[in-house]
Amino acid sequence: MNKLSQLKGHRILFIGIGFYDYDQSIIAELKKLNKEVSYFSTHTNIWNLLIFKRLHLNKISEKILKKNIDRQINRSSINNDIVFVIKGENFDDSHLIKLRSLNPNAIFILYLWDELHRLKNLNTLNYFDKIWSFDRVDCLKNKNLSFRPLFYREKQNKTTKNIDISFIGGLHSDRLEISREIKRQAKLNGKSYYIKLYTGIWLFIKMIITGQLRIKDLDIISILPISYNKVIDITRKSKVVLDIQHPSQYGLTMRSIEAIESGCILLTTNKDLVNYSDIPKESYIILDREHPVFPNIINESTFKLSDSYSLKNFLKEVIFINEN
After folding, report:
1. Which whole-number Å values give the CA distances from 273 to 98, 135, 308, in the listed order?
2. Quick check: helix, strand or coil at residue 250?
3. pTM, to two decimals
4. Residues of the chain with pLDDT > 90: what percent?
5. C-alpha atoms less than 13 angstroms from C-alpha of 98 in its C-beta half-sphere
6. For 61-111, how does the pLDDT look when each residue is reduced to its tens digit (9 = 90+)?
7. Phi and psi of 276, rounded to 5°?
């Protein structure tokens, strides 16, 4: 890793995932660290691609996606010092070979913001000089991965907490069933709640037609994405934040980190949180996803995460930035 230890470049090609405006926050922070940043995302919402995906015409949608990424690579800056990729979703070997040829002296760094087994093409890992993962268990299983949790974007000021429990996230796995039960118990105990499961219009229609969604579910369903500013505002006002991670995922979600930083008690199905020695047990409760129970919270959390969880320190670690 001598190449990494001598890293001093300032030109960074950042390839993000287009989730909320996290990519823009990362770019802004890199610029504060005096880096010259160019950017594109592997996530795309091209209308014809979305249609073909919904029609399950996978080969056609894959061709459209590949061409779109090819086009973005050809338009991207060249001869960068660092190529920093988050997830690398939708990349194939040809994309990374091309990127390597356009940036022959660059250090290629990958951050896996997902569990390893959900990566479509594991062979793409071979094109990176350094690979980080947010999933502690994946790192234990694979010696080529280095563990680094996610981050909070900014320190949160103390505010009045007038929502007893909240959850905002995409609908997958058993989130609907758990959210229904937490909502039922909240109403039974006279507790306030703000629960929104994002479906998008197509999944919403499908679940209505198939009877998976009930009329009484509609107050916890959103067909439109909720902005980050709204999410963090609800989080800051919540006494408890519910976190229902994907059953196969062990890494701490962004929701978990930002909830704890916002002074909330985290109610999470992620049992691996007990292995984070820098997060005290008083700041979270492990939820049994088979038998979810609304917690009896007496005191609000006063715990704040260390600066090591900040976006600035996240970037300094994963991209080997030394400010001295």
Report:
1. 39, 11, 17
2. coil
3. 0.91
4. 75
5. 15
6. 778 788 889 999 999 999 999 999 999 888 999 999 999 999 999 999 999
7. -95, 95
Q: Which amino acid is at 231?
A: V
Q: Which amino acid is at 80?
A: N
Measured CA distances, 263 to 199, 239, 290, 303 (Å) = 28, 8, 27, 6
Rg (CA), the chain: 21
Task: Kindly provide the b/e burial profile for residues 123-150, where b requires at least 16 CB atoms within 10 angstroms of the residue's own CB.
Answer: ebbebbebbbbbbbbbbeeeeebeebbb
- Main-chain phi, psi angles of 155, to 5 degrees: -65, 140
Residue 296 has pLDDT above 70, yes or no: yes
Question: In this structure, what token pair is assigned to residue 22?
Answer: 């996290």
DSSP 145-174: -EE----BSS--------EEEEEEEE--TT
Q: Which residue has the tokens 């949608």?
A: 61
pLDDT of residue 1: 45
Closest Cα partner for 108 from 95, 117, 119, 120? 95
Instruction: Give the tens place of pLDDT for each residue, 156-215.
Output: 888 899 999 999 999 999 999 999 999 999 999 999 999 999 999 989 999 999 999 999
By CB atoms closer than 10 A (0-12, 13-18, 19+), residue 174 is middle
